[in-house]
Amino acid sequence: MDNSFSSSFGKDEFKKLLAKYEEMASGKQPAYFDADQLTEIAEYYASLDDYEKSLDVIEFSLKIHPGTIEILTLKAHLLIETDHIQEAKEIAYSMPDYEYDVKRLKALLFTKENKIDEAKRMLQRMIEEEEEVDEESYLDAAYVFMDNEYPEEALPWFEKALKLVPGDMTIQQDYAECCFRTNNIERAIVWYNKVLDEDPYSTECWFGLGKSYSMNDDFQKAIEAFDFVLAINPNHTAAILLKAHAYSQIENYTEAAELYLKYTEYNPDEERPYYMAGICYYNLGSYEEALECFLKATQRKPLLDYFTVDAFQYMAGCYIHKNDHAKALDAIDNAIQLDYKNADLLITKGSIFLRQEEFDSANEIFQEALELDNFENPDSYISIALAYHDNNLFDLALKYLIGLQESYSGHGLSYIYIAYIYLLKNDKDKFKEYFMKAMEQNPNNITQFTNQLSSDQAEIKELILNLKQSIEENY
Fold first, then answer.
1. How many Å apart are CA 267 and CA 93, to the nearest integer?
2. Torsion angle in degrees (nearest 10) through CA of 258, 260, 262, 268
C-alpha cells in the first residue's frame, strides 16, 4: 500500500508525536491529536504491517474526527490489504467521489474485481478532474495497475510520467520493471541500463537486468548482472537462486549445484533448491550427492507435490545407476504412492523389473501404464521401447515402436526410432527402409532424434547425420 508519509517517520518530530500517542494509548497521559497527525501514525503502523494497531488509531481518529476523508480512505486501503474487499467498498461508496483519493480508491477496488475497463475510466476521470496534473498523478494511476498484476495497463501511465520528468531514475526503474513484466524484454534492458549508467550500485536494477537477460536466454550476461548484485549484497538470496538457474541453463552444473546449496543456507526449509541441486549432481553423474539432495527435498514436503514426486523418480534413477535395484523400486514406489496415475512412473518401475530380468512383471506394469491413457499416448510407447532398448531387448523395443507406427502413422519420431533399433541389430536393409521413410516424413525429426543421443553414442549420431546430409544433397 502507499506509504505517503514514510519519509517523515525517521524525523524527531514524528518520533515525539508517536511517543505522545503511545503514552496516551497506554493510559498514562491524555492528549489531543488532529486528523493529519493520527493519519500519519496509522500510516506508520501500516508500514510495519501492524494492521491491528493501525486500525486502532483509525477507529480512535474517527471518534474524534468523524467523516475525515483521509482516514476513511486509509481504513479502506487497510481493509483491502487484509482481503476485506466488501467492507472497503462500503467505505469507498460512502464518500463523495469528487475527492482525488476516493476516485483512486474506487479504481483500485475495480482492479480487485477484475473490472479493468471501469478502473481505467475512473483513473482517466481522476486525471481529467485535476486542476494541475503532474507526474505523481500519472504514477498514482500506474501503481493501481502495477501493484495488482496488470502491468500492461500501467505501461502507458509510466510513459506519461516519464515525458514530464524523463530524468527521474525511480520512474525509469519502475518503468523498466513494468516492461519486464509485460515481456518487453529488450526495452527493459535498455531502461535498466539507463539507470545503472547513473547509479551503478543499484542492486534492484542489476537484479532486474539479470532477470531480463535470463528471459532473453542470454544466460552469460545474466550471470554477470547477478554477480554485480552479489558484489553489492552477498546475501541477496533471489540473485543467488537465479544465478544458479542461469548456470544450470548453460549446463555448468557444478557451479549451479553449489549456488543452489548456498541458497538453502538462507532458506533451509524450501524444497525446490535441493531438488534442483540434485538434478545438477545427477547430470554430473555424482549420484551419491544427488541422492543426498533429493532425500532432503522429499523430507520437506511429504504431501503431493511435483518436485517431491519427481525427486523420488530421480532417486530411482540414481539407484539404477548404482545397480541397487531394491532401493530403486522403493524410491519409485514412493513416487507412485503420491501420483498413482502417472504412466511415466510406472514405466520407470517396469524398466527396473527389466534390469532384474523379471520380464513378466515388467510387461504387466507396461500394460498398466498404457491403460492409464487408454493406449492412446504415443510417448508411452516410445518410453517403453527405450526401456527395452536400454536392456538390449531390441525385438521387444521394435514391437512397441512398430505398434506405435501402425496406430499413429503420423507420429514424428517413430520411423527414425525404428531405423535406429534396426541399426543396433545390424539389419542394414531394414535400417535403410525406415530411415528413408523418416526422411520422406520430415528430415527435421532425424535431427531432433540425434540431439537426444548421449555423448557415448557420438559415432551413431555422426553416421545418421552424414547419411541425412548425403540424401539431401542427392535429391
1. 44
2. -140
